[in-house]
């Protein structure tokens, strides 16, 4: 069956619901039962002049790289500069300021842009912000999970779909809620943002750091729930790295495993290795498949044809991905805004 499905996807035989703002839409499936497209490193000025244009792109996931600057107590947004900002977020706090102000802002500035854009597009489809904490958190410098939550909450308020929203006052863990498919319909998430946190490349290569973002935020969720304060949490930590089976079992102790329902790994590793990814959709977990262009047969990482993107979306939907990502920022909203049924 996998061979037949792959062949169908490769020739572009796919039925998709295109979720583009302003277009008529059919009855909405649950968020957990769809597959959509995201843009890698959307804060990069080479991809979009302004971050608001990344939000305009139609993409369902946008990535931000964040450094905690312990010297100045700032959240820096940059690919490789831990002490400065290098990004397309602008000094814009109102809709009228967008697309015109100075760039290279910190994370708070990026969130200001998101809030201002949200005022212009209150009915937008749900957007996931994938936040790579490049060097991790630093509680000692006042740049820990609690401070991250406070910043996001202050800037975006009730436009964030939070862990507590998935729990709904009914479930005792995110795992229990996901297994019950407590995710809302996509239409119910219009105007909403979700935050996914992953460990950063610098953090992972630090031989003295074995307490990464995923574990730290997982413990943060566990402790907030135990204290009756889960409503403060703004983000979902992700299990990083493609694996066959449930990677939580070998990576985390039993107390935090139930707080992971986002999984994030290389698309080619999942598909080309033949991993059984049905585990993720069967339990209604959110699976983010990165580097979608690299799945065999590879397509352009920057500007494939529209048909190639549609075929790749169909292929990875069949492999149970919730979101696929690449550097396809050159594609129009009619392409990046595509949403299809998850396999």
Brief overview, please?
Keywords: Signal. By secondary structure, the protein is α/β, with parallel strands linked by helices.
CATH homolog superfamily: Phosphatidylinositol (PI) phosphodiesterase
Tell me, rounded to a whole number, the average pLDDT.
93
User: Outline, from the CA principal axes?
Assistant: globular
Q: Major sheet: size, sense and barrel closure?
A: 8 strands, parallel, barrel
Portion in strands: 15-25%
Q: What is the count of β-strands?
A: 11
Signal peptide: 1-26
InterPro entries: PI-PLC-C1, PLC-like_Pdiesterase_TIM-brl
GO molecular function: phosphoric diester hydrolase activity
Pfam family, one: PI-PLC-C1
Which keywords apply here?
TIM Barrel, eight-stranded parallel β-barrel, disordered N terminus, 13 helices, phosphoric diester hydrolase activity, globular, 11 strands, PLC-like_Pdiesterase_TIM-brl, single chain
Can you walk through the features of this model?
One of its GO terms (molecular function) is phosphoric diester hydrolase activity. It comes from Streptomyces collinus (strain DSM 40733 / Tue 365). This protein is α/β, with parallel strands linked by helices and 343 residues long. It is built from 13 helices and 11 strands. Strands 2-3-5-6-7-8-9-10 form an 8-stranded parallel barrel. The model is unreliable at 1-25 (pLDDT under 50).
């Amino acid at each position: 069956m996998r061979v037949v499905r792959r062949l169908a996807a490769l020739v572009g035989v796919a039925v998709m619901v295109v979720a583009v703002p302003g277009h008529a839409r059919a009855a909405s499936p649950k968020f957990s039962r769809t597959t959509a497209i995201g843009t890698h490193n959307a804060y990069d000025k080479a991809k979009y002049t302004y971050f608001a244009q990344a939000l305009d792109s139609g993409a369902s996931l946008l990535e931000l790289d964040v450094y905690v600057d312990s010297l100045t107590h700032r959240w820096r947004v940059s690919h490789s500069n831990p002490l400065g900002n290098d990004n397309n977020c602008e000094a814009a706090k109102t809709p009228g300021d967008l697309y015109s102000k100075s760039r290279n802002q910190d994370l708070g500035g990026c969130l200001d842009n998101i809030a201002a854009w949200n005022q212009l597009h209150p009915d937008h489809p749900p957007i996931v912000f994938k936040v790579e904490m490049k060097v991790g958190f630093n509680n000692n410098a006042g740049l820990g999970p609690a401070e991250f939550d406070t910043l996001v909450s202050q800037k975006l308020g009730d436009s964030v779909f939070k862990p507590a929203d998935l729990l709904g006052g009914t479930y005792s863990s995110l795992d229990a809620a996901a297994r019950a498919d407590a995710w809302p319909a996509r239409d119910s998430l219009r105007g909403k943002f979700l935050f996914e946190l992953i460990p950063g490349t610098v953090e992972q290569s630090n031989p003295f750091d074995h307490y990464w973002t995923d574990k730290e935020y997982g413990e943060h969720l566990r402790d907030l729930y135990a204290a009756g304060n889960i409503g403060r949490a703004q983000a979902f930590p992700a299990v990083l790295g493609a694996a066959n089976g449930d990677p939580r079992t070998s990576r985390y102790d039993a107390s935090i495993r139930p707080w992971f329902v986002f999984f994030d790994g290389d698309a080619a590793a999942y598909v080309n290795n033949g991993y059984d990814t049905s585990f993720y959709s069967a339990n209604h977990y959110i699976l983010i498949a990165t580097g979608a262009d690299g799945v065999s047969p590879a397509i352009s990482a920057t500007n494939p044809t529209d048909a190639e993107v549609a075929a790749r979306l169909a292929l990875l939907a069949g492999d149970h991905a919730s979101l696929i990502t690449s550097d396809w920022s050159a594609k129009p909203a009619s392409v990046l805004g595509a949403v299809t049924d998850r396999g």
